[in-house]
Amino acid sequence: MKQQRAFLKSGDWPAWERIETDQRRGVPPPPLEKPAPPGAARIDLVAPDRLTVGALPLIEAIRRRRSRRKYTRDALSLEELSFLLWATQGVEKIIAEGKVSLRTVPSAGARHPFETYLLVNRVDDLAPGLYRYLPLEHQLCLLKAEEGLAAAIDAACFEQYVLNSAVTFLWTALPGRTEWRYDILAHRVILMDAGHVCQNLYLACEAIAAGTCAIGAYDQERLDALLGVDGQDEFVIYLAPVGRIGQSAGD
Fold first, then answer.
1. CA–CA separation, 79 vs 83, rounded Å?
2. This model's pTM is above 0.85
3. Which domain holds residue 232?
4. Shortest CA distance to 153 belongs to which of 88, 223, 56, 55?
5. By the number of CB atoms within 10 A of the CB, which of 120, 132, 170, 249 ranks highest?
6. In 90-185, which residue ranges form alpha helices assigned H by DSSP?
7. pLDDT tens sequence across 160-173
């Protein structure tokens, strides 16, 4: 227990200063995003500068923010999904000769160690299935559309709100992106980064009359397998179902 608590403390930054990290050795950084699988269908999203949703004042979004577990059967629009994706992992600028991305959420060392997977149940103009967000292109790529996929992911999440959502955000961590810079301290800051991403989702949902509820309890091996990730260099770290809410959906 004491060792687990120690993990949450500041960390041995003096030791980190002495470590010959990959960055200090001149090793090129990992890619900013995973490429789309060859032949995968791609879907263009509504560009950030063309978004007309999400104009709720920030102070009101903060006041309304709740974990919302009950959703209506109404679909989200593709523009609304575009807004949620931009709000959580949207790329604002590429710097350092294409090696660093500045996004709509903070990340330690601008490493942004996450990939965003989506289980789509009800989004206008999108077939149900598993997708991945390509933030550099602001596109989706379709990974698979198998019958029973939503039920399998719901079961791997211990039946926590996924099946009734319009879309579920599933974030995987690729620790190597952050280890490249922070080595032994990478894993603490990855957890901080996950919180930044999910809080943006909460506020962005409130801005479009939708809701979400962060989920940290799931079957790690089953969920990794369903997303097709190896569980070592990439694994699920956080997820959040999203759906349209009624007047009394907060709890």
1. 6
2. yes
3. 46-244
4. 223
5. 170
6. 149-156, 175-182
7. 999 999 999 999 99
